[in-house]
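> tool_call: predict_assembly(chains=two)
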Amino acid sequence: MDQISEPTKERLLYLMRVLDHAGTKLITSGEIEQKTGWSSHTIRKDISFLGGDVGSSMGYNAEILKKAIRSALGLNRKRTFCIVGLGRLGSAYLNFDGYTEEGFELAAGFDSNVNRVEILKSPVPLFPVYKMAEVISRFGIEMALLCVPGNAAQQSAEKLAAAGIKGIVNFAPVVLDLGPDIFVRNAYVVSELRALTVKLPGLL
Amino acid sequence: MDQISEPTKERLLYLMRVLDHAGTKLITSGEIEQKTGWSSHTIRKDISFLGGDVGSSMGYNAEILKKAIRSALGLNRKRTFCIVGLGRLGSAYLNFDGYTEEGFELAAGFDSNVNRVEILKSPVPLFPVYKMAEVISRFGIEMALLCVPGNAAQQSAEKLAAAGIKGIVNFAPVVLDLGPDIFVRNAYVVSELRALTVKLPGLL
């Protein structure tokens, strides 16, 4: 399946979002075009990469189409992740309950504050940071949400990388300096606001 | 300044992140190359759009360079935003204290639960959703962090758009269907995990 190009992957990921709330309905390429802005030619070409029978002349079955994308993108097996840094943001993501239905398993949380680890209410086990390598290896954890303050982010990320983590969603205000084998998605809220700001009208 | 291309804007935004924690130090184009992966030719070309004197042969002064990018991208005047949906995630962002130094002012929070609006501890005034249009207009609010559940996201976004909001950071698991004048950044955590997953090794 590695013939799927990066732009097609990005579009299929976005299409999954569109389908997330479409339920079991039929969705036409015209409707997808309206919601995404892509041409129906592009949409049909992207979907052709999925193979199999994902639709009829009446439209695509949203549930079957989503399943086909999941499979083509390797999202059809369970992926395990952890949360590092259990302040307000980390705690919010700790208690979010939409991971499982999407195939993601939150396995553990870590914080440098042993007290916080002991008293915080959590649906998954929490550990002090010094147990990170052991727990990540034991649970086979592949990814992490990094929710620590900026001044702790690089060090925490290095510990995660050393423990075998392969991907990090980075909520800290820092560009992480890691080896080429670790994938990072930057999700710092101020960066999101900046990126919006440069699109606002009457600006430049 | 609208001759700055979108890719250059994106790189300048990313460069700001690199500079965020560089303090007042000198940073060379070689160091920027190492942290970003861009060629030093690209870096020098991007920086040339900023005009003025941002560096010497010894390297760029990080603080001056950041100020020049801020100005070129229109990030040098205060931008006002609000938070809609004050559950765990919205509350976490409500109490984050890194906005002001970056030129963003959190002006208000909104929630449909009047009780929550009354009892939640907050550094800014909170309002029930039905006051949204009035408050957004009164405070001149331009952007919103949308932290409501998926089933409320489209309706909340439409209310924001009707009230004059121009940009939304969307944390909900829904693709928003809004007019072409509203800019949306999607920041749903499961989408971030999916996007990481498709990059993981040994996958496709």
